[in-house]
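Worked Example 4.2. Consider the chain below.
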Amino acid sequence: MKKYLLAVLFLMANIGSTPANATTISSTLNADNIFQLYVSTSNNTLGTLVGSGDTWGNTYNFTSQLTAGVTNFLHIVVNNVGGPGGLLGAFTLSDTSFVFANGTQTLLTGDAGITQNLSGFGSAGNATVSEGANGVGPWGTRSGYDQLVPQWIWNYYSNNGDDRNTVYFSASILVPNAVPEPGSIALLGLGLLALVAWRKRKEQMSA
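Applying the procedure from the previous section yields the following structure tokens:
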């Protein structure tokens, strides 16, 4: 009997528990001109500031932790102060606890998993527009992407324009196997306790 009870308590204590090592997301970014990078657990709010930059020629690298067990969101705000605007980036996850919308642990600007709008976060996003792969003019080749080939993206093709928009980019970071809701965990625990009680009655009747 003690073995059954201990098994129930152990299962209830460990279902949905947070992994010892949190998943991290590594971000590599260039933006024309000024950007802020956030990670959030709601697509309606900016979230936690991860880093920022203000020089399009510099490649910026950041690492941050994700909140376990729930959908996270990558939010990037880019403000163009004149001339062409654009965002170039690559994002990788440290393990398989999460996936991007493309089903993998790597997301590049230009992939369908990144959306944009001009009004902020929370509303439905639109597809981004490619301005060309890393190396395209007027930016040239930006270092730090190794074998990855992200594309410069914006709300429209603006290489020859004077676009002073602020563009809000968003990407979902999903849990491939959702953790059971607290209510489901409680029901499972009650079911296991009922099983233990039934087993005890059966043993008493057999004695």
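Residues 1 and 203 are 10 Å apart (CA to CA). The longest strand covers residues 24-32. Compare this with Example 4.1 before moving on.
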